[in-house]
Amino acid sequence: MNRILEGVIRFKQNEFQAHSKIFAELRTRQYPQALFITCADSRVVPSLLTQTRPGDLFICRNAGNIVPAYGEVNGGVSATIEYAVLALEVQDIIVCGHSDCGAMKAVLHPELVADMPNVAQWLRFADSVRLTLKENYAHLDGEALLCAAIQENVRVQLEHLKTHPSVAARIRKGALRLHGWYYQMDTADVSVFDLAQGRFMPVQELSLAGCESPAGEEARRVFSA
Predict the structure, then answer these.
(1) Residue 153: partners with Cβ closer than 8 Å, 6 or more residues away
(2) Average pLDDT in the 127-132 region?
C-alpha cells in the first residue's frame, strides 16, 4: 500500500504539473473519443496500451470484458454504455479482450469458479462462446483453444452491444462504430476484428473494411485504428 500512496504523491508533484493544461480543460467537462470496454485484469492498462491522454477514453472494466445483452440485467455496464453513447456522444466503442484471460479459462473450465457463485453467474453472459467453440473449434486445445475463446468472446460481446437501443440507434445513424480487439500481453501485439474478412488481423494490416457500421464509405473513411 505504501508504494501506491507514494505514487499518488509523485503524480501530484510530477505528472499532474506536467499536464496541468489538460487537467484544467477537463475540470468541468469530459470529451472522450471512445468507450473502452475491457477486462478488469490488472495487467491490462488501456491508457498505456493506446498511448492516450486523460480524458480520451471512457473506460468500463469487468471480468471478461462482458456486455450483457440489453434487458438481461440492469447494472453498471449497461448504464456506462448508455451514458457514454447518449450523454458523452462517443463515436467509437472498443471491446478489448486479452491473452491469458482468467474469465475465459473459467468459461472453458467452469469447475475453476465452482466456489465463486457470483463469478459463475456473471460468466453466463459468455455461454454462447462455449457452444461456438464446441461446434467450430473442436480440433483445438491448450493455448490455441483459449485464444479462440477470448476472440470469440469479443465477437459475442460486440453482438450484445448492438442490442442496446442507444447503440443501435447511433449505429443506424452512422454516428457510432464498434471495434473488437485482442491484446497479446507478452508481445504488446493488438489484433482487430476485420468485419469484411471475418477474422482478427494485426493492427498494422487493418483494412478499413473492419469498421462495423452501416454508414457505408463515409464511415470507413473516418475510421482509424
Answers:
(1) 64, 65, 66, 97, 101, 104, 107, 126, 129
(2) 94
Q: What is the mean pLDDT of residues 141-149?
A: 97
Q: Which domains does the chain have, with CATH numbers?
A: 1-30 (no CATH), 33-215 (3.40.1050.10)
Q: From the CB of residue 66, how many other CB atoms can be counted at a distance below 10 Å?
A: 20
Cell 461446434, residue located: 135
Percent of residues, the chain, with pLDDT higher than 70: 92
Which 3 state secondary structure label does DSSP give 58?
strand
Question: Model's pTM, two decimal places?
Answer: 0.88
Q: Is the pLDDT of residue 125 over 60?
A: yes
Rounded distance between C-alpha atoms, residue 153 and residue 151, angstroms: 5
Give start and end residues of each alpha helix (H) in the chain: 2-10, 16-18, 20-25, 46-50, 76-82, 102-108, 117-122, 127-136, 142-161, 165-173, 217-222
